[in-house]
Amino acid sequence: MTTDVGDVKVAAGQEGAGFAVARLVSRDWRAHRAVLGAGDLDGDGIGDLLLIDSGGTLRFAAGKGDLAYADPVRLSGGWRGRTNIAAGRDLTGDGIPELVATAAATGRTWIWPGDGDGGVGHPIGGWTGWDGARSVTTTSDVTGDGFADAVVVNARGRMTARASRHGMWLRPSATIAGRWSSYRWLALAGDWDGDGFGDLVGVEGDRLWLLRGMATGAITHGSVAGPAGTSATT
Fold first, then answer.
1. For 35-80, how does the pLDDT look when each residue is reduced to its tens digit (9 = 90+)?
2. CA–CA distance, 173 with 73 (Å, rounded to integer)
3. Which of 16, 20, 45, 197 is buried most, with the most CB atoms less than 10 Å from its CB?
4. Residue 151: helix, strand or coil by DSSP?
């Protein structure tokens, strides 16, 4: 998902290599600083979006199919001071995707469980050690243990995979080998290449790269997926 002067676009992955030409989703979300793929948050079998505006309001936009979305509905406020925001994966084992974020004031990271009806419940967790992260994304599994993980890149470019056990993050983190400081943006692409392991996409310079997950939990530097073109939003 990308933004171009406030327009929201989605580029669908193509089997084999590359991405389709990005399609415009909305021109009405220019005031939002984040547009997140939320997974199927309302249980209707169609992917949804979560939006956070510049004032810190979290909203839910239900997917209607064919890249169409309902008008965003307000869920809660207070998101202006939260960073490392990621969504779209089931981290608690209840079959519903969750939302993850770090409170900038305290440096603690929380999970907001999805309620299955387009909303999120009370936060759980309060883990420390995430406030220095440059980016955080969540994936179904990159460590090969069958549980959802978080992939964290710190300010120095060190990437780690933090495995979860139904909402309980485990330590120590597993370092993912590679030089990641050159990427200005990283995000999960799901199992893009169909091998059963989560992959990432990253923007380095003006190029979009596919970084393939492996059974060992490693992430390989992969092939160029296309030009970066627009600025990515997580």
1. 888 889 999 999 899 999 989 999 999 998 877 889 899 999 999 8
2. 36
3. 197
4. strand
